[in-house]
Structures are given as C-alpha cells and as structure tokens.
Amino acid sequence: MDEVVVGKGARTRALVLDEAARLATVVGIDGLSVGGLAKATGLSKSGVFAHFGSKQELQLATVERARATFAEEVLRPALRAPRGIERLLAACEAFLSHVERRVFPGGCFFSAAAVDVASWPGPVRDAIAAQRREWLGVLERLVREAQELHELDDADPAQLAFELQALLAAANTTFVLEGDPAVFDRARRAVDRRVSRDAP
C-alpha cells in the first residue's frame, strides 16, 4: 500500500513539475505560484503545496525538470549523430527543433529563465547559469571533436561555441516574439555558414 502511495506521489510531483516548466516560460520562473499550478494541473492547492517546502524549492525542482527535458530533447538526439561536424550541426538542429516544436510554449526554458533571474542572485540563478555553461561546454566539446577529426580548423572552440549559441538564441527570441517559423530556416543557414567558415 505504501508503495502505491509513493508511486502516486511521484507521478503527481512529475505532473506538477512538467507543467511548472512549461508555465515558467510564459509567466517567468518567479511568476510560478501554487494557485497557478493547481489551476493548470487540476489539483488542489494543498495537493500542489505538499510536494514543495518553499517557492525556492519549487523553482529549483522546476529548473532540474527543465534540465532533464533539455537533455532528452536536445542532447540525446545530438549524441546519436556521428562525431565531428555532423554531431555539432545535429546539436544545433536539435536545439532549434525543440523551440520550433514548442516543447516549452515560451521557447527555450533556460533563455527565458535567464532573463527572469539575471538581477537576483541566489541558488535559482546559479542553477540556471550552470545549465547555460554546461550547454556552451557541450558545443565547445563538439567543436573540439570536429577539430580532432580535422573537419574544422584549429580556431578557438569557445569562440565558435559562443557564436553558434548566439545564433540559436537569436532564433529562439525572434520566434517567441514574432511567431514566424521562417526564422528557423534562416538560423539553419546561418549555422551552416558559420561552421563552414572554419572547415579546412
């Protein structure tokens, strides 16, 4: 009986966090509330509150849930591609695809959250900053792999990773603001051109 209760509690928590991650891209991570999540999930306020001891705990759990979703939607598809330029481009494509498919209604969770928490230091901002550094680190590592295979020149991997992320972020922001899917074709062409510039 206890296992059934624990299992139901875990499912409810997962439901709440999935909705919290989606909602945070629209109302901001600081705009998350027990009442808003109760309404969005059809649960009682007490049913939502029981899973989180504080607003900060809810926010941190939401960041972690979004991180898991990002890994599933962006990192795993990219890592299925062969090493080298193909994997680097696959990572950029997976990022654009997850925005284009509106995995989160307000675009990339971490881009939205970064703006929301930029001016208030603390554990939530630290968690979001860590994820953004991790993503840039992934892009940089993929650039290095392509260089090791002699598919890219020995340019600064951190610089190329930064420029690629800038293109992806621009596509995300433009799509969220304007809703024009044509931005993804432009972003894909820009990414291809930027990577090609460093090809031998």
TrEMBL record:
InterPro entries recorded: Homeodomain-like_sf, HTH_TetR, Tet_transcr_reg_TetR-rel_C_sf, TetR_C
Annotated region of DNA binding: 33-52
Keywords: DNA-binding, Transcription, Transcription regulation
Stretches assigned to the HTH tetR-type domain: 10-70
Domain of life: Bacteria
GO terms assigned for molecular function: DNA binding
Coiled-coil residue spans: none
PANTHER family per the UniProt record, alphabetical: HTH-TYPE TRANSCRIPTIONAL REPRESSOR NEMR (PTHR47506:SF6), TRANSCRIPTIONAL REGULATORY PROTEIN (PTHR47506)
Protein name: TetR/AcrR family transcriptional regulator
Protein source organism: Baekduia soli
Lineage: Bacteria, Bacillati, Actinomycetota, Thermoleophilia, Solirubrobacterales
